[in-house]
Amino acid sequence: VAPWVISNLGWPYMFYSFGALGLLWALVWAVLGQDKEQAACATDKSADACAEPGEENIPWMEILSCAPLWAVVVAHFCHDWGMYALLTWTPSYLNKALGYDLQGSSLLTVLPSVIAVISAGVAGTIADRLRGDGMALTQVRKLMQTIGYAVPALCLGSLGFIDASGADTTVPAFLPIALLCAGIAGSNFSLAGLYSSHADLNSRYAGLVNGISTTFGALAGVCSNTYAGNTLGETNSWAQAIFIPSVVCYFVGFAVYTSVYDATPCKWGEGAPQ
């Protein structure tokens, strides 16, 4: 839909569309969303269910001094550097570097995302089966995240080589598209890796941990897009702007996550007064 909207209505209307959908979802959430305690009270009118919750003392020092948490944060930052760069720049790469007409090839622009959805289901199924076969949770997470780094690193590294070689290298027309799709699909194995790690560390504070991790992931998106835009404008090199930095980040994230992360639950705040 996006290529058609941009071509016929102008690029601002794509942002207007997303903004309108966001406002609609906010309205639905404001009307129907409620805290877990409120939902319990609605179905159970007992005094315990409807009691006002007291203020909780969050064990910030225990949380922020946890090494596995920071392994997740680093992995999240490194993964999202490449992910946001791909999400933002793939249409431009298809159009400017490969010469595809985005309006005429709108199906092509969504193909990587469709494959990514399928790979996410595959990753979850494999992770569950490995756990069912007795593999330790820490090892499952590290294996899934290794795939989530290795496959896109290999694919983007290959794209970087093709871009850097320029006219000196002749490749089949479908190869860059296949590499993009495979890289994005492989990256989604992270959903059974680092993106499931927050609940591993502590189910009670999983939302808080996810918030910390996602903040750094969003920061990676800001940094990667700023860097890619500036570098592409100065060098006109997709390899220097996107592919090589993403591969470097994947390697750093892999090294930190696989060496530091441990899925053993952390006993944050246990025994502390509430």
Structure in words:
This protein has 274 residues and is an all-alpha fold. It contains eleven helices and no strands. The chain has helices at residues 2-9, 12-32, 36-43, 60-64, 67-97, 106-132, 137-165, 175-187, 197-201, 206-235, 238-260. Helix 5 (67-97) packs antiparallel against helix 8 (175-187), helix 6 runs antiparallel to helix 7 and helix 7 packs antiparallel against helix 11 (238-260). The chain is globular, with a radius of gyration of 22 Å. It starts with a helix and ends in a 14-residue tail after the last helix.
Number of helices: 11
Give the overall silhouette. globular
What is the arithmetic mean of pLDDT?
85
| Main sheet attributes: strand count, strand direction, barrel closure | none
Q: What's the total count of β strands?
A: 0
Helix content: over 70%
Which structural category do the helix and sheet elements fall into? mainly alpha
Would you identify the regions where 5 or more consecutive residues have pLDDT less than 50? none
Determine Rg (CA atoms, Å). Answer: 22 Å
- Our estimate of the beta-strand percent is under 5%
Order of helices and strands: HHHHHHHHHHH
> Termini, distance in Å?
50 Å
List the helices and strands and how they pair.
Elements (H helix, E strand, L loop, with lengths): L1 H8 L2 H21 L3 H8 L16 H5 L2 H31 L8 H27 L4 H29 L9 H13 L9 H5 L4 H30 L2 H23 L14
Helix pairs in contact: 5-8, 5-10, 5-11, 6-7, 6-8, 7-8, 7-11, 10-11
Feature tags:
274 residues; 73% helix; 11 helices; single chain; mainly alpha
